Amino acid sequence: METFDEIQAIYDSQIRNPTQKSADEILSSAKLYLKKLKRDQYFVIGILTLTLTALIFFFYRIGQFGDWKLISGLGMMIGSLVLRVLLEFWSKIGLKRLHTFLSTQDFLDSVKRYYQSRKQIQKVFTPIIYLIYGIGIVLFLIAIQPFLSPIFFAYCVITGLGFWFGFIWVIRKSYRKERDLIEQLSKIGEE
Predict the structure, then answer these.
(1) Which residue ranges traverse the bilayer (predicted)?
(2) Residue ranges of the chain with per-residue pLDDT less than 70
(3) What is the Cα–Cα distance from 75 to 71, expressed in whole angstroms?
């Protein structure tokens, strides 16, 4: 029995990790992170769709009767927002494929694929969308300048460019938040 007592003593002396989570805690954490990702994605889609609706309404009421600069500017702004909303819906479909009932490895693989697709959207498509929207604002402002007083035109320039920077800020902030959540989600499997 001396051998067994030695083995028992070695086993008892091992340091146990008190922070190790149970399977239920890991599953609930994963569900919480997925819920946050989905909520944030609805928020971004909502803001972009509201802006898109306002631009389409403006184009329908006033813009269609303008010159080529006004039509092109509004078209570029609307087109870039439509592209962004479509990309967000595409990502939403990818987010729905993240199932917590999968094996841990399959779940982590699907999180990595989702993260890679989001990185591609942010690195490739987002700068193009910013550029197209910015050119659209400039064309729009050039087109409306002859019809406005200098003070109101300055107001339009400030609010237009302010919205453009706000648009960039919202997308970048949502991406950073999403990236942090995905990284936390992928760390769950390492615990």
Answers:
(1) 42-62, 68-87, 124-144, 150-171
(2) 1-24, 26, 63-64, 188-191
(3) 6
Q: Which two tokens stand for residue 84?
A: 């962004």
**In angstroms, rounded to a whole number, what is the distance separating the alpha carbons of residues 104 and 18?**
21
Closest CA to 26 of 95, 115, 113, 101: 101
The answer to whether residues 82 and 146 touch, using CB atoms and an 8 Å cutoff, is no
* Cα–Cα distance list, 42 to 48, 67, 94, 98, 117 (Å): 10, 35, 14, 16, 18
The separation between CA 34 and the C-alpha centre of its own chain, rounded to angstroms, equals 13
94-122 confidence digits (pLDDT tens): 888 877 777 777 777 887 888 888 888 88
- Let me know: does 134 contact 114? Beta carbons within 8 Å: no
